[in-house]
Amino acid sequence: MIEYRPLRVALLGAGSVGAQVADQLLTHRDELAARIGASIELAGVAVRSLDAKRDTDIPRELLTTDAESLILGADIVVEVMGGLEPARTLILQALTSGADVITANKALLATHGPELFEAAGQVGAQLYYEAAVGGAIPIIRPLRDSLAGDRVQRILGIVNGTTNFILDRMDAHGESMEEALATATALGYAEADPTADVGGYDAAQKAAILASLAFHTLVPADAVYREGITEVTLEQVVAARKAGYVVKLLAICEQLVDPATGQRGVSARVHPALIPLSHPLAAVHGANNAVFVEAEAAGSLMFYGAGAGGIQTASAVLGDVVSAARRHVVGGPGVAESTHADLPVLPISAVTTRYQIALQVADEPGVLAVIAALFQSHGVSVETVQQAVSVVDPAVDPARAGQALGAATLVIGTHEASEADLAATVAALSTSSVVHSVTSVLRVEGL
Ligand code: NDP
Ligand code: HSE
Question: Do residues 162 and 307 make contact, with C-beta atoms less than 8 angstroms apart?
């Protein structure tokens, strides 16, 4: 029997995600009420245009362009409009009026998170954001609640579906970067302007959110080292597979000690990386996301599923609605964000990892020794060396096809080395007289 008063929910946005949230709030009303112990009343849906076509049927009388008035008196405000403003101002107004807020807006959280959490903390309101990272995948609550008693050491995540789709097309279908991006656009995965995805900005915002939660430390998005996938070539992807790896855009958050200074801190970085085909993340295909968490007591955990999509993301939003509504009914302070560790965010130069470097070199006696000496002099230990003699491509010169060119391709795998030492090694290789060109430098993760 339901005794609590109906809870008023204001929905800001009725696009891909919002239209599905509205639909579920309306059609699953009784079931949600039974789970919550109070009924949910969708007070209204703020949009930019009352006449825009919607993915689901939303009663016309619920639509409004006056978001500010809609949030007045709401118990729960769901922000799925996106962008920084007016989302930030509306959320601040909602929180300061005591409403709990649910948002899927990673850009806003990565930019203005501390201000929003502070506003929530001052009035004892809660800010929920399960949908902001990994779409439908439960990852925020596991990090914030389930692992709150453990120590997270490292997170390796595929947190951008568009770039995973593109790299997967290159790997599985032999498409070039341009062809794979065109496929992603045609199938609706990539936006008309794909910069946020292919440039790694979206993944960096998500990495900032994950690192902040995992390490109880504020990690701003602009402290996340970022490289996108635009420089990844089909040749690198093909060579990776031959060597037993796959190229993925990874978000890597870890606790580490800077080898140069001895300072302990956290690091968050987003860049393409090689991972072994045997690693669980190598099996993440298409536009799916996965987050691999290593914790001191729990060991390795992997969270996998749809990282985007209107109805999938609505699942995460609805979970937050139920949590917020239950808090109204049964009370309690909810879960506070914690930044108690307050560790420094270390620069990329503090990171140590393995690398794979491909070089075009002169095929002459003594070349390997020169190159080995360059690695040694910069303190980088070589683990593997593969050499293939370069021959004339039949497509270029059929008459000389297969003839030796006096050059060779060397692929050198390193043991763990610091970014600083590796960068110095690559700089030295680039100017060495025996090296024609450094054709690829990729970090290797997940070994
Ligand atoms: P859409 O662009 O599809 O929808 C945005 C909605 O917000 C539209 O209904 C729009 O109104 C409304 N809106 C935008 N600006 C205003 C404004 N100033 N005043 C009132 N209404 C406004 O976005 P999505 O649904 O794709 O994304 C929403 C949020 O969810 C974003 O933060 C996104 O990052 C996040 N997210 C999205 C995922 C996805 O798969 N789409 C996955 C995970 C997170 P109108 O319709 O009239 O234009
Ligand atoms: N553009 C994002 C992606 C959507 O490709 O993963 C989900 O945040």
Answer: no
Ligand nearest to the CA of 189: 2
Taking the CA of 136 as reference, the closest ligand is 1
**82 CB under 6 A from ligand 1?**
yes
Closest-CA residue to 133 (of 274, 8, 290, 286): 290
What is the chain's pLDDT, residue by residue, as a tens digit (447 residues)?
557 999 999 999 999 999 999 999 999 999 999 999 999 999 999 999 999 999 999 999 999 999 999 999 999 999 999 999 999 999 999 999 999 999 999 999 989 999 999 999 999 999 999 999 999 999 999 999 999 999 999 999 999 999 999 999 999 999 999 999 999 999 988 888 999 999 999 999 999 999 999 999 999 999 999 999 999 999 999 999 999 999 999 999 999 999 999 999 999 999 999 999 999 999 999 999 999 999 999 999 999 999 999 999 999 999 999 999 999 998 866 666 678 999 999 999 999 999 999 999 988 889 999 999 999 999 999 999 998 876 667 777 777 676 666 788 999 999 999 999 999 999 999 999 999 999 999 999 998
Give yes or no for residue 49 CB within 6 A of ligand 1.
Answer: yes
Q: Would you call 352 exposed, middle or buried from its count of C-beta atoms within 10 A (0-12, 13-18, 19+)? A: middle
Q: Ligand 2: does its nearest atom lie under 6 Å from the Cβ of 320?
A: no
Pick among 1.25.40.10, 3.90.1150.200, 3.40.50.720, 3.30.70.260: CATH of 351-444: 3.30.70.260
Nearest CA to ligand 2 atom 2: 160
Decide if 7-135+311-330 and 351-444 have a common fold: no
Question: In terms of residues, how long is the chain?
Answer: 447
CATH top-level class for 140-306? alpha beta
pTM over 0.85: yes
Ligand 1 pocket member 47 (CB < 6 A) = yes
* CATH number, span 7-135+311-330: 3.40.50.720
Residue from 109, 162, 163 to probe ligand 2 pocket by mutation (most atoms less than 8 Å from CB): 162
Index of the ligand 1 atom closest to the CA of residue 132? 44
Q: What is the spatial distance between Cα 367 and Cα 230, in angstroms, rounded to a whole number?
A: 32
What is the whole-number distance in angstroms between the Cα of residue 433 and the centre of ligand 1? Answer: 55
Find out whether the beta carbon of 202 lies less than 6 Å from any atom of ligand 2: yes
The domain spans of the chain are 7-135+311-330, 140-306, 351-444
Burial class of residue 64 in the structure, from the number of CB atoms within 10 Å of its CB (0-12 exposed, 13-18 middle, 19+ buried)? middle
CA-CA distance, 360 to 365, in Å (whole number)?
15
Distance 51 CA to ligand 1 centre (A): 15
Q: Which residues are catalytic?
A: 206
What is the number of the ligand 1 atom nearest to the C-alpha of 48? 47
